[in-house]
């Protein structure tokens, strides 16, 4: 039935309409939510959605960015840890030498200066394994092709590397051999000690000769040296004459040139085709080249650049056999960190004072008392001055004494070089 204008509203219908309105979210009585009806309500809903959506998107991107950053941090940490463990596992530890030295502790010299360190670096001439291309391997025997006593003073403001000639005649103690027997005590050329009893026998021989306590030692093979040179992209040298030495696997033109690892190895090992053919001349060449290698690493910022340092560390650690005190990357890093700020002109190289052996000019003997004085200065951690041989000769010709005569305690001066010297200006 249709209601007329004058007909009163049906109470039951009015109540039903109110219930239906309430079920739609609104009420015909009381305050109304204007956001739900009319033009103003529709605009309000749009504004609320426009404000909330970008905020949700921003939060979502922040969460993804945080997750991505966390992932990359974990990956970087994992790669870093893997590289660290790889370098660490490259290093070989020689525990047998430690045991042998412990058995002779009572006869070893005592350390004199706290924090000063003496490290014996032995270049092995073994032809076993990867080194067989450099000559025949006679039953796995090896001798020390190069031996350097590296002295690091307590203040770490300099470094002195003293070479010991392999043909130097000296007293070699009775040593335990690789087959468990013992060699006899004898007077022989120095590098036989490494063949007789390895690292321990070499250390005992050096300590008896010098009176200097050896704190640590490293044995480096041919390939390690070669790979280190390649890792720094070669080292420049200057040659007055061309070289053609099949025994050293070396053929080079005269003049300035950069040597790669293989060429550098031949250059520092060559004996018959360079200079006067003596071991002393070869050691002088080795010292100059090592100085140039140190200079290259410092001047090119290799030590401060992890990307460039890693290949050097990888090459070095793969070739190293050390005592337990240097057999981890942490130990080696602590050693390098202590000397990385040493100026290159304070990294000195010299050969122990020597002369041809009276009984055999093809062998060497120490010059006394010069050698004794040098050993004592290193043992007491006192300064040593090193100058090129020609400058030392001029000082002797001009003054009769290479030391500074105006000083109340003259510093002895020895023939040698430093890492700042240019190989092409000598």
UniProtKB/TrEMBL annotation:
This protein's name: LCP family protein
Keywords, in A-Z order: Membrane, Transmembrane, Transmembrane helix
Classification lineage: Bacteria, Bacillati, Actinomycetota, Actinomycetes, Kitasatosporales
Amino acid composition bias (Basic and acidic residues), ranges on this chain: 10-22
Key word Ribosomal protein present: no
Pfam families named in the record: LytR_cpsA_psr
Organism per entry: Streptomyces yanii
Annotated segments matching region Disordered: 1-47, 388-426
Similarity-based family: Belongs to the LytR/CpsA/Psr (LCP) family.
InterPro entries in the record: LytR/CpsA/Psr_CW_biosynth, LytR_CpsA_psr
């Amino acid at each position: 039935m249709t209601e007329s204008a004058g007909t009163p509203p049906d109470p039951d219908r009015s109540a039903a309409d109110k219930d239906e309105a309430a079920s739609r979210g609104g009420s015909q009585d009381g305050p109304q939510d204007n956001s739900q009806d009319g033009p103003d309500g529709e605009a309000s809903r749009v504004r609320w959605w426009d404000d909330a959506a970008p905020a949700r998107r921003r939060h979502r991107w922040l969460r993804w960015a945080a997750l991505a950053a966390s992932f990359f941090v974990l990956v970087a940490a994992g790669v870093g840890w893997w590289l660290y463990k790889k370098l660490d596992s490259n290093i070989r530890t020689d525990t047998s030498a430690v045991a042998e030295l412990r058995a002779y502790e009572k006869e070893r010299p005592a350390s004199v200066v706290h924090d000063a360190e003496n490290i014996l670096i032995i270049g092995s001439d073994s032809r076993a394994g990867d080194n067989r291309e450099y000559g025949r391997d006679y039953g796995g025997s090896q001798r020390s092709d190069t031996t350097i006593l590296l002295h690091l003073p307590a203040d770490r403001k300099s470094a002195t590397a003293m070479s010991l000639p392999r043909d130097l005649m000296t007293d070699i103690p009775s040593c335990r051999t690789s087959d468990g027997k013992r060699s006899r005590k004898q007077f022989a050329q120095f590098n036989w000690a490494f063949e007789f009893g390895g690292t321990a026998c070499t250390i005992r021989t050096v300590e008896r000769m010098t009176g200097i306590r050896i704190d640590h030692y490293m044995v480096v093979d041919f390939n390690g040296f070669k790979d280190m040179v390649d890792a720094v992209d070669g080292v420049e040298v200057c040659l007055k004459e061309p070289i053609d030495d099949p025994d050293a696997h070396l053929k080079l033109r005269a003049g300035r040139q950069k040597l790669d690892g293989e060429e550098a190895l031949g250059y520092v090992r060559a004996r018959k085709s360079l200079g006067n053919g003596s071991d002393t001349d070869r050691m002088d060449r080795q010292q100059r080249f090592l100085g140039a290698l140190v200079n290259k690493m410092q001047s090119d910022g290799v030590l401060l650049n992890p990307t460039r340092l890693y290949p050097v560390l990888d090459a070095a650690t793969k070739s190293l056999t050390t005592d337990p005190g240097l057999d981890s990357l942490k130990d080696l890093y602590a050693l390098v960190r202590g000397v990385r700020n040493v100026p290159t002109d304070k990294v000195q190289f010299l050969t122990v004072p020597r002369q041809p052996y009276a009984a055999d000019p093809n062998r060497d003997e120490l010059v006394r008392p010069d050698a004794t004085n040098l050993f004592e200065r290193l043992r007491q951690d006192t300064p040593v001055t090193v100058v090129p041989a020609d400058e030392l000769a001029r000082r002797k010709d001009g003054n009769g004494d290479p030391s500074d005569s105006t000083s109340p305690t003259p510093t002895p001066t020895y023939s040698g070089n430093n890492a700042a010297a240019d190989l092409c200006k000598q």
